[in-house]
Amino acid sequence: ASLALAACSSSSKSSSSPATTASTTTTAPGPATTTTLEPEAGVGRISFVYGPVTGDCIDLRSVATGRAVTTRAIPSADATLKSDKDVMLRLSCDLPHQYEVIATPSAGLAPTPTPTTEQFVAAAKKLCPAAFKTYVGIPYPGSSLEVGWVLPSEEQRNRGVQVIGCTAFDPKGKLIGSVKDSKR
Fold it and tell me: pLDDT tens across 4-20, in order?
């Protein structure tokens, strides 16, 4: 569409210059878009019990309100499901996500008595930083990313599951894209 504008002067001085005409081209506005840092739950796969898989990009969400919403704006090291209202949302790594699973080592704890959360956390703090370089491509101490974990639920531990999901996360917010070989 074209819009023609004529410039007029209301000055009291007489002017010997002729009036000028300017032409401006405008375009119709494009479609409205929105930006979100939280993908809708429908674009991912929801798990009430999560078994970590290396390469998974995940969000810890709560369904307490009937919708799967992020439990925290800034992720923390422990991404373990804490209640029956928590779910793990597995997403494409191209979408914003809190964590990426970088390794899935066994905790290697004695099976009886059933290991405690504290024992699993101690194992994660030992095993996960060691796995970081292999997946991300640089040693953990030189990275802008942090190391975290997803631990087996109490029910899983009672069944003998000892797999720890070692994760990488950005302490400043969500990740977009995979951290594999990113050297971040």
Answer: 434 444 444 444 444 44
- Confidence (pTM): 0.73
Distance CA 87, CA 50 (A): 8
Residue span of the structural domain in which 80 resides:
41-169
With b for 16 or more beta-carbon neighbours within 10 A and e for fewer, the 83-115 pattern comes to eeebbbbbbebebbbbbbbbbbbebeeeeeeeb
Tell the residue number behind the tokens 């001085």, with chain if given. Answer: 13
- Is 23 inside a domain boundary? no
Judge residue 150's burial from the number of C-beta atoms within 10 Å of its C-beta, 0-12 exposed, 13-18 middle, 19 or more buried.
Answer: buried
* 117 backbone dihedrals φ, ψ, rounded to 5°: -60, -45
